[in-house]
User: Fold this.
Amino acid sequence: MAHNELTEELFNIFRDSLIGYFSLINGARVQITKEYYNSFTRIYSYDKIENISYSSYLCGSIRVYDPDTSLFEFDNYVRWNNVLNINKFVQHLSTAQQVLSIVDRAFILILAFEGLCEKYQSLVDKERIPSQLVSKGSFQIIKKELLNILENHNEISTDVMKKLSDRICNLNSNKSSTNKFKLIIDDLNIEMTEKINTLFKKVRSTLVHEATLNEYEDYQLLSELIREIILRLINSKLERYSSFVDKMFKGESPNLSYNEYIIQKHIKIEDSLFAEYDRRFKYWIKQGK
Assistant:
C-alpha cells in the first residue's frame, strides 16, 4: 500500500465527516449523491432534501460560500468527529432547524447540548473535575453543625429528620448539570455572561421540566452557542453571522489544532487509527511524494 492512500475505514470516516461539516456550514442537512473512490464511481439514490429553513450563522447568504479556510479546519473536524461524534449533534441542529414549533426546536437543542457536554466531560481528565465543593475536612465540620441544629428541633418527625439529614450529607457533591456546561465553555474561552448563565439555569429548567420557552431569543442563543462550541473545537476561522446585534460569545477562541488542544486540556483519547495515519503521512512528506 502506498503511504498516501486512505484505508477504506479512514475514507468512510472522511466521507461521513464531510457530510457533517458541510451541513454545519450550510445551516441545514446536505448529502453526497456521487463519489469517486478506488478508481470507480459510486452513485447514491436519495430522496431530494427539502430544507424549509436554514441557519445563517456561518453563511450570511446561503447562496455564497467562500471555502478558503475550510480545508485547514476540516482535519480537526474529522478527528473530533471520531471521538465526540460531532455529526450526531450537527444532525440534531439540522433536524431542529426544520421543525415548525420554536419550542420543539429548543427542546431538541437543549437535549443535544446536554449530550455534547456530557460526551466532552467523559474525555476530560477526572482530576480536573472536583467531586466535592469544599474539602472533606471542612464539610465534616459544616455537616456536624447543621445536624446539631436539626437535633434541637424536637417538632421534626423522625422521617423528615432522616430526609433532611440525607440531603445535608449530599450538599458537598459537585454533580450539578451546570458543571459540565461550564467545563466546555471555559475550555473554549467562552465568557459566562449573564445571558448564557440564564440559559443554563432557567431556560434549561423550563424547557426540560415544563416544555416551555419564554423567549424566541433563548432558542436562537442556544442554536448559535452549540454551533460556536463546535466551531471553536475545530478551530474554525469562518466568519460568523449572528442574529444578535450585540456580541454573544465573548472571549478569544483557543486557536488550537486537535492535537494541540487535547494536550493542553489534558484530554485522554485512544486514537490509534489517526496516529497510524499521521505516521504514514509524515513518511510520505519526508519522501517528497
About this structure: The CA atoms of residues 52 and 100 lie 9 Å apart. The mean pLDDT is 83. The beta strands are 34-37, 40-43. The first strand starts at residue 34 and ends at 37.
